[in-house]
Description:
The complex is a heterotrimer. By secondary structure, chain B is an all-alpha fold. Helices cover 72% and strands 0% of the residues of chain B.
Amino acid sequence: MRLTAKLPYTFVHVILVLFSLCMLLPILMIVNIALKTNTEFLNSPLSIASSLNFDNFAEAWKQGDMVTNFKNSLLYTGFSTVLTCLVAALAAYPISRKHIRGTGFLLGLIGITLFLPDGIVPMLFFMKYTALLNTYTGYILLSSGINMALMVFILVGFVKNIPAELDEAAALDGCGYFRYILTIIMPLLKPALTTVAMLKIINVWNDFINPYLYLTDKEKRPLTSGLYLFVGEFSTDWTVLAAGIVIVVTPLVLVYLFLQKYIISGVSSGALKG
Amino acid sequence: MVKTYRSWAPWMAILPALLLFSVFKIYPALGTLFFSMTDFNGNIDHFSWIGLRNYKNALTINFDDLTNAIGISFTFAFFTTVIQNILGVALAVLVNMKIRGRNVYRSILFMPNVLGVVIIGLIWTLIFDPYSGPVNQILGLFGTSSSMLGDSQLSLSLVILVQVWTSVGYAMVLYLAGLQGISQDIYEAGSMDGAVGWRAFRYLTLPLLQPIIGVNILLSIIGSLRVFDLILILTNGGPNDSTMTLGMFVFKTIFDSNGTQGYASALGIIHFLVISIVVVIVQTYMRRREEKLS
Amino acid sequence: MNRKKLASVALTTVISTALLSACGTNNGNDAGNSVATAGASASNSNDSGKQVELRIINWRVEDKAFFDQFNAKFEKENPNIKIRYDATPTQSYAQLKNSRIAANEVDIVAGDYKTMNSADQRELWMDLSGQSFLSSYKKDALENLSYDGKQYGLPWNKVSLVAFYNKKMFSDLGQQEPKTWTEFTALLDKIKAGGIDPILVGGKDGWPMQQIVHTLEPSIVRGAKPDFYGKDNANVMALTSKFTDPEWVEVFTKFKTLSQNFQKNALGLAYGQAPGLFAQGKAAMMIDGTFSLTQINDAKPNFEVGTFMIPATDDEAKNKIGYAKIGGAWFIANNSPNKEAAMKYLEAFSQKDNYQLYIDTVNQFPVMDGITMKDPLAQQINDQLSAKDAVDQFTNIQNSGSTYDLDLLNQLATSDLKPEEAAQQWQKNYEDSKANWK
């Protein structure tokens, strides 16, 4: 862009490096604390860890039941993400193309749900009387459902960018409605779906309160819930807490780094033209 | 459009989403609306319909607390939205330039969005810790110190800071999308009329970004008016209610032995109505502006 | 059960058929399918066997070590009972508790006096009167959780507030444990003059600072007027006792004096940080619940820790009135289908060896006779406490629905709000809440 003509590159880099440090330093600080012993932390909280001490990680791993929780987290995140992408893509197409009556109303409803109040007790009753309470299925459906609207909303914008001529060509081919969405539209939505998937992954992985409410069995809890327990249990021992944080965050950051190319370009390829 | 699909096919396609959405979003909200007119207090076999009494109580007995919470919510939402969007646009413009490592910058700036609220809350609790936290150590170099989140004059600003830290990357990415949708030709043409640098930004980029700015502002407002979990972990609404936003106030009522769950539900509905009003006002305003521009 | 299963299967089927319908091959099908089967198998497993699942919730995440051990032992002794024990941090406990009770998804609930302080709350709990395991508990502790002759809660322990102090610092300054308020304030001045922070408080969470008032109030208010509050706060409700009375103004005044001796920026320090910092010698004293002893020991202090009860007045007789509250209690849900198993659990908890293990692990004061504490310091505090006439904290006498504006205490500590003004404000807020009183 033309702005660069006026702004010296070094100046731009300085600003960006400063902001990047603002984002990174807090995270690095936690890693640093996780490597310290408690005494070292209490006496010199900010110094660089004098030696690499992995005891905190071992303690956090053991105390947080991380093995089971880790497996559950993967399960919930995986299934909800796949389910969300599929269901949202199926819905986004007809809404975007106005194939049904009342799309305006639907979109309005979707907008409202961004701030509808939660209802824990009614939700619990539903879960209980459909025997979904405390089941893997129940939690997967729940976590796919809570922000389905937002996901559909994002995808609707993307579908608009897919030329309608394509639909006609397919219709002439006699391709069924569902086959068309699943085999033609979905692959074209790949960058958008990556974005939706990443948002969903972040969302489900970090959810800590719903698992408590809707999964009464400890063996079914995800990782973040285990970490949340630490908040009370280790509020006096920040080093273990910090190690717990690192363990929970690492997989997510790795996925993010792996997917970020798609996400940022995905969002950039016109999510919001709608 | 050649219509070859059966008429029920599109309905079948949206059915799963509609079902999930109704069951997990609409139904609980309706349930809350129902409970808000009862004196429900946890005992499902034993509660009665009391009409609008909860609402009346909220607007009379708790009027001061409620308006105080609404005021704090508005302050919080206003500053978060303004700062986040100004920074978001600025950063988006910078990382949209053809500079080395811009993808790295983009990823780093978006990074906090990956972390969950619990983790963000814990990290910043530690940063603001008056004993072990870095901020006070730096302040110490200047011979001063502060109780940070414990200082009722300062706490709200700090919570705003954390909220901006968390979500500025998201705003940036959305603006980036908008910037990339602007054709280079416009700048070429503009430069002939002398629109370069700041002028290009002011008279070309900003007007063209208008729709995205609208979406972004709306998302920021809704997000910041809803927020409570971050505040729960950072300050729990204190000190002296200085960070008691509406969302936090609703959450706290559930705790309070004073309020029944029915009452908390009524507050939840009031919270929803307050956001709706703000959203409607902002949206009407922005629509008018857009019309004026086009 | 069958109806529920049907509903669950129906919902999953509707969703998965919608996904599967019309079009044939795609990868998405697998997801839909496995979700459906996962649902079916999950509901099947619920049907198998006649096992009882005992669902317990608690907010004491800190006590994990004990409950891990105790629950495993209990399950071994009662092979037909499977325990689902759940603890969340205090912040979200109310949410968990309310929702589990409403959905009838809980058998044993951890609570305290407030869990049963109104008639509609008491309806939720089973009356434990007449159960044999009650006999081993101290009478006054049980009374705390009973109402109109019905025993609703089973007390765990007793909690009180003490001043932990750094013996080395005290002896360096030539100081001793104070016996009167005058001695105490003189001591604070000496420490301050020595360039040391006298009192360390983690004030950010609000309540740690507020609880200091709980330790001052009994001697000052109830030492002077034993019946200040009356039954169920009757005197305060009738406005014959007011917070603007000289006794309460004295409480506010003395609290303000203490707050001037907190470490700098006390309101910003997270509560959990305080014990560790105290153990590292960052202040001479820490006023905190006796429960923090475990955390202090964990942070390995390189000095000897001493404790004393804060003398709130200069009158020895008044100082004899101390403060202790029940740290928590078990309640059995009235709607629970597993009452028998729940009783078994409480019975096991009440067995001497288990209870001794509980006290040893959590380092709180026993409410059962014949239990000694392993930690010598803890035992010493327990003895100090036993020498007092302990009364419950005044907020537990508070009539339900009324407002005590505890935030005023934080203001008192940090602003130039005068104790008299705080007292008036407090009284006003209380009277203003009248419409809410139940």
